[in-house]
Amino acid sequence: MRELSELIEVEDPAWPVLGGELRDAAVPVELLDADEERAAAALVQTQVTVRSFLGAFVLHSGGAFVDDGWLRVYGSPAADNDRRLPSLARVNGYPPVTIPDWRPQAGLVVAHDVLGGVFVVQGGPADQVGLPGQPGEMVYFAPDSLRWDALGAGYGAWLSWMLAGGTEEFYEGLRWPGWRDEVRELDGDRGLTLYPPLWSAEAHQDLAATSRRVVAMAELLDFARETSAQFDEADPGFLGTV
Length: 242
Known about the structure:
- This protein has 242 residues and is of the alpha+beta class.
- It has one domain (4-232).
- It is built from 10 helices and 9 strands.
- The strands form 2 sheets. The protein has a 7-stranded antiparallel sheet, covered by helices on one side. It has a two-stranded antiparallel ribbon with strand order 8-9.
- α3 (36-46) runs antiparallel to α4 (53-60).
- The longest helix has 16 residues, at 155-170.
């Protein structure tokens, strides 16, 4: 296990570039300040350097609400967390003290969206972790299909795309008129459940006609996992603890 100094004393740290992208994002971004001591501990357990966007984001931020909170990207524990955004450590069940040989089961959950979609950095060979894609590739559990999809990019490219307005393309067909007003004020541990469900033919035909209700994100993820297992007779695996 690398010590903190090995993770932060690097050439070409990513934060100047990432910080600029966060400030100049094409979509609204609310960035939370990090608790410095707990941020350092989270970085050590994550074992990535600050040359990467992931390491820089963990060390320098308490997470972010992207595109008026449609997307929640997890960082270190926030210094002031009135918005109840979970940390990367909480979402992935980090041990309370640093353990050298601890690793996430299949990959690192780095973000959720308001519909219960899950973004994960794939953690190993597909036949071993049960996720598509290659190690280090971003994969997404889609709430409208209840399946995992490989996105063909790593964390840094994915985050840059989201900040540059990629949410509009990625969520095409999954937003309805007035969605910002429903999403903007939600806390980080809350999401929206739709009826008829997002994966149903009725929702696909007329998303705006669905009824929507605010629920705990944990409830949304549990429902998606249970439904996926019923449909495919296969558990999609860990979707994060929120």
